[in-house]
Amino acid sequence: MKAIDMRCRPAIKGLQDQWIYDSENMVHFAKYFGGSYLAESAKEKSIEKLLEEMESLEIEKGVFEVRRGGNPEINAEAAELIEKYPDKFVGFVGVDVIDMEQGMADIDKYVINGNFVGANIEPGNPPAGKEPMFIDDERIFPLYEKCQANNIPITITFGGPSFPDATAMLPYRVETVAKNFPGLKICLCHGAWPMFTQLCTVMMSYSNIFVCVDSYLMLLPGYQDYILAANYAFQDNIMFGTSYPLHAQEKVKDFYMKAGFREEILPKVMYDNAAGNPQPTMYELLFKNV
Predict the structure, then answer these.
(1) What CA–CA distance (Å, rounded) separates 93 from 109?
(2) Which of 90, 33, 92, 81 is nearest to 59 (CA)?
(3) Residues 74/94, Cβ–Cβ less than 8 Å
(4) Residue 196 — very low, low, confident or very high, per pLDDT cuts 50/70/90?
(5) Which of 68, 147, 198, 288 could form a disulfide with 94 if both were Cys (CB 3.0 to 4.6 A apart)?
(6) What is the percent of the chain where pLDDT is above 90?
(7) CB 160 within 8 A of CB 216
(8) Rounded mean pLDDT of 148-168?
(9) How far apart are CA 78 and CA 111, in angstroms?
C-alpha cells in the first residue's frame, strides 16, 4: 500500500552529527517503541539507500520537518536535497521561534519564495542555551499569523517528553492556537502523546487540527486510542509517520498495517490524509509543486 511518511529526516550533512544519527542513541531509543530497529540506510547515513528502502515499501514521499536547532545552514542543506529529489521529499522549513526575525525571514526565503511547503517549529526544544516555550506563548503568535495569512501549514513537535514542564502537552494550549488562528493548518507530530484522548474534545471543535502519530503508535500506553479515533470520528485527521531515522520505515509501516485500522480507513491514514485525496485537507499543499 502506498504511503506518505509525515516524519522523515534524511541524513543531510547537518544532521549526521546530531543525536538522532548517533547509533548508540538510536538503538537505545528504538527498543522502547514496539521493539523497533534501525534501517541500514540510517546506520550508513545514506540517502541513496533510504530512497531504495522507500521504493521497496511504496513510501512515495518523505516529509522532511527540519529541526533548525543551532545550525543556521541546515535549511539551506535541506533545500538542496528537495531540489535534487523533488518527487521524493517535501520540506517544512525549520524555524527557531526564539529568534522571530530570523524565523520570518526563513519562511519568506524557503517557503514563500522557495521550494518548501510548510514550517516546522519545536518551541519546547530550542537551540542549546535558549529557554523552551509553550506552543501558546504569545511571542510565537506573529509566526502563526504569517503562516495563516499565506496558507502555510505548520507542524509542531507535540508529544513525548514535555518541556518546559509537564503542562506543555495540555490540550488547552492547542485550543488557544486553533481558536486564535482558525485558518492556520496545524499538524501535531508525535501524536500529542500522552494527551491524545483529551485532545479529541478540542479536535471536535476545530477542524484545522491534524495529528501525525508516527512512532507513538508503537505500543506506547494508549496507542489503541489512535486506532479507534482513525477508524471512526477522526478518520480524516490521523496520519502515518515513522520518525526515521530513529526507526526503520519497514518496521513502522508493518506495524500500522497490522494495528487494527479498518480496511477502508488504512488508505486515509497511510496516504490520503497527507495527500488531500479524496478528502481535501491541509496536506493537499504537499503536492503543490508537483
Answers:
(1) 10
(2) 90
(3) yes
(4) very high
(5) 68
(6) 83
(7) yes
(8) 94
(9) 12
Query: Distance between CA atoms of 208 and 240, rounded to whole angstroms?
Result: 18
Strands 118-121 and 59-65: unpaired
Which grid cell sits at 191?
501524536
What is the DSSP secondary-structure string of the chain? --EEESSB----HHHHTSGGG-HHHHHHHHTTTTT----HHHHHT-HHHHHHHHHHTTEEEEEEE---TT-TTHHHHHHHHHHH-TTTEEEEEEE-TTSHHHHHHHHIIIIISSS--EEEE-TTSPSTTS----TT-GGGHHHHHHHHHTT--EEEE-SSS-SSSGGGG-HHHHHHHHHH-TT--EEEEGGGTT-HHHHHHHHTT-TTEEEE-GGGGSS-TTHHHHHHHHHTTTTTTEE----BTSS-HHHHHHHHHHTT--TTTHHIIIIIHHHT-SS--GGGGGGTT-
All three cell numbers of 104, joined, read: 520570518
Give the bridge partners for 118, in sequence order. Answer: 92
As a whole number, mean pLDDT of residues 7-17 equals 95
pLDDT score, position 228: 98
Closest listed residue to residue 258, CA positions, set 222, 210, 221, 223: 223
Of the pLDDT bands very low, low, confident and very high (cuts 50, 70, 90), residue 191 is very high
Is the Cβ–Cβ distance between 183 and 152 less than 8 Å? no
Which grid coordinates belong to 274? 497527507
CA atoms within 13 A on the CB side of 33: 28
Query: Is pLDDT of 280 > 60?
Result: no
Report d(CA 163, CA 156) in Å as an integer.
13
Average pLDDT on 278-284 reads 45
Nearest to 143 by CA among 111, 171, 113, 170: 111
How many residues does this entry show for the chain? 290
